Amino acid sequence: MSVADKSRKKSGGLGETVSVIVQALLLALVIRTFLFQPFSIPSGSMRPTLLEGDYLFVTKWAYGYSRHSLPFSPDLFEGRIWDTAPERGDVAVFKYPPNPALDYIKRVIGLPGDRIQMRDGQLFINGEAVSRQKTGQIDNPDITEVNRPVDVYRETLPNGVSYDTLDVTPNGISDDTREFAVPEGHYFMMGDNRDNSADSRVFGFVPEENLVGRANIIFFSISGGASPLEIWKWPSHIRPTRLFNMIR
């Protein structure tokens, strides 16, 4: 084989490698944009449902697509394509209204036209108290973030969706609010950790355009601020009971 042939062979091999890499990146971009997006939990606002160190898959097609479905949210179009309204009780990822560069995750509590209010720690929707039953206490700092037992309440929305909420601070500052009237095209979001959640009680309503997708499944979970790449910490920090849990 001549030097020229060897050079062409090497060049062809390099070109094929570059082509495979480009195709893989394009495929990953398509999957992330239209199908699934990985998301990590950065705060304790959704405890006990979601914990810091949980890693989720978010379904992008669940609510249709807006410009926020694309990387960097380019201003290519307004509104949503193939729009499907979220259901009350969904755990949704959305762009933070005051700063759309940030992703937030909360539970959908109020739909367009609803009236939402907290009274003495009780959630009211359209003037009716939402079922709230104390189920016990959690005494685990990995779940509650505090070194004492915390009351747990099972809340059941009018459509039957149930989930646990934490009452870390009885009679807390967020336990009593004004009544919020949710405008058309917007949603009212709340965290399950009611006393430690900056949500629609603080920043207001979330435009439907800001919805990114619905959180569906926890595919990995690790405690203590450890990174999933720190494999040597898995034996002591991984949360095996949370792996592949469906999010409700």
UniProtKB/TrEMBL annotation:
UniProt-annotated catalytic positions: 45, 106
Gene Ontology terms: cellular component: membrane
UniProt superkingdom: Bacteria
Pfam families the record matches: Peptidase_S26
GO biological process, one term: signal peptide processing
Keyword terms of this UniProt record: Hydrolase, Membrane, Protease, Transmembrane, Transmembrane helix
Peptidase S26 domain span: 16-220
EC number, as in UniProt: 3.4.21.89
Subcellular localization, as worded in the UniProt entry: Membrane
MF GO annotations: serine-type endopeptidase activity; signal peptidase activity
EC category name: hydrolase
Catalytic activity, reaction form: Cleavage of hydrophobic, N-terminal signal or leader sequences from secreted and periplasmic proteins
Sequence similarity: Belongs to the peptidase S26 family.
Designated name of the protein: Signal peptidase I
Organism: Nitratireductor arenosus
Gene designation: lepB
